[in-house]
Amino acid sequence: MEWLPGYAPELNPEEPCNNAVKLAMLNAVPESIDALRALARVNFARLSRKPQMLAHLFHDAGLSVT
Fold first, then answer.
1. To bridge 21 with a disulfide, which of 9, 28, 43, 55 should be the other Cys (CB 3.0-4.6 Å)?
2. 25-46: b (≥16 Cβ within 10 Å) or e
3. For the chain, what is the domain count?
4. Which pTM was predicted?
5. Residue 4, CA distances (Å) to 29, 33, 46, 59 in order
6. Is residue 65 part of a domain?
7. Residue 50 burial (CB count, 10 A)
8. How do residues 14-56 score in pLDDT, each as one tens digit?
9. What band does 13 get if pLDDT is binned at 50, 70 and 90?
10. What is the per-residue pLDDT for 66?
11. So what's the pLDDT on residue 24?
């Protein structure tokens, strides 16, 4: 387990993951909050199927993935 500072987005691999999902949803026009949540879940699931990209995000933050 790695402890991260309270706010240091450059050290937090979650920030670029969120940005990737936001970019994928850039032109989305969900009709409800539930549709927005479903779309976000779909895009996070797509991201989870890209282990090399996720490992790269951790590496860029100075963390190792074991």
1. 43
2. eeeeeeeeeeeeeebbeebeee
3. 1
4. 0.73
5. 34, 31, 25, 14
6. no
7. 12
8. 888 899 999 999 999 999 999 999 999 999 999 999 999 888 8
9. confident
10. 73
11. 94
**55 belongs to a structural domain:** yes
| Degrees, nearest 5: CA angle 7-11-45 | 100
Alpha helices in the chain (DSSP H): 14-24, 33-48, 51-60
pLDDT of residue 52: 92
Give the closest residue to 62 by CA, choosing from 3, 5, 11: 11
Q: End-to-end distance of the chain based on CA atoms, in angstroms?
A: 10
User: Is there a domain that residue 66 lies in?
Assistant: no
| 1 occurs within a structural domain | no
Domain that holds residue 38: 10-60
